[in-house]
């Protein structure tokens, strides 16, 4: 079905979403997109790290196809206005605008929670993701040079952020 006829819903994650989210992680997070592949040992392990309500999920025609996750940047009260995000879209649904819609929904949700800054980390070996984040309003704040050695190559860890308007 052409993407313009699909119905996209974005909502908070629920317990029933765990397996689909684990499957997306297994498909998306590999040696080119993460310092090491993300593999959950069990559903319980996943839910311990990503409890229901800690993500916004994208559902297209009743298929969960992506998410944006949120976690405290440090756990310090002086840093509570900052939220670290991660985002993934199932490969079959990429290049359809779902990631952009998740980022926009994530910005709105974070503002409603009193957050003023979103931050993320992206590998220099993933130029497509870097361009995507820039398109969504993120700017590079720093770079940890040669932070990882992946596939025999030194890879930088790029720190990006986006400031949100006060609600």
Automatic annotation (TrEMBL):
Pfam families given in the database record: Acetyltransf_1
Domain N-acetyltransferase: 8-165
Keywords: Acyltransferase, Transferase
Record GO terms (molecular function): acyltransferase activity, transferring groups other than amino-acyl groups
CDD domains xrefs: NAT_SF
InterPro entries registered for this protein in UniProt: Acyl_CoA_acyltransferase, Bact_Acetyltransf, GNAT_dom
Classification via PANTHER family: AMINOALKYLPHOSPHONATE N-ACETYLTRANSFERASE-RELATED (PTHR43877:SF2), AMINOALKYLPHOSPHONATE N-ACETYLTRANSFERASE-RELATED-RELATED (PTHR43877)
Protein's recorded name: GNAT family N-acetyltransferase
Naturally occurring in which organism (per UniProt): Paenibacillus rhizosphaerae
């Amino acid at each position: 079905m052409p993407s313009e006829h699909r119905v996209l819903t974005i909502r908070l994650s629920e317990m029933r979403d765990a397996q689909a989210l684990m499957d997306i992680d297994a498909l998306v997070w590999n040696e080119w997109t993460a310092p090491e592949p993300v593999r959950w040992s069990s559903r319980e392990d996943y839910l311990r790290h990503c409890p229901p309500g800690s993500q916004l999920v994208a559902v297209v025609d009743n298929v969960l196809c992506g998410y944006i996750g949120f976690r405290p940047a440090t756990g310090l009260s002086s840093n509570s206005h900052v939220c670290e995000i991660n985002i993934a879209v199932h490969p079959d649904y990429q290049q359809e605008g779902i990631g952009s819609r998740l980022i926009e929904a994530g910005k709105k949700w974070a503002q409603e929670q009193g957050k003023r800054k979103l931050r993320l980390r992206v590998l220099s070996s993933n130029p497509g993701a870097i361009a995507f984040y820039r398109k969504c309003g993120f700017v590079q704040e720093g770079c940890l040079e040669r932070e990882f050695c992946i596939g025999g190559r030194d890879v930088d860890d790029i720190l990006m952020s986006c400031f949100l308007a006060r609600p």
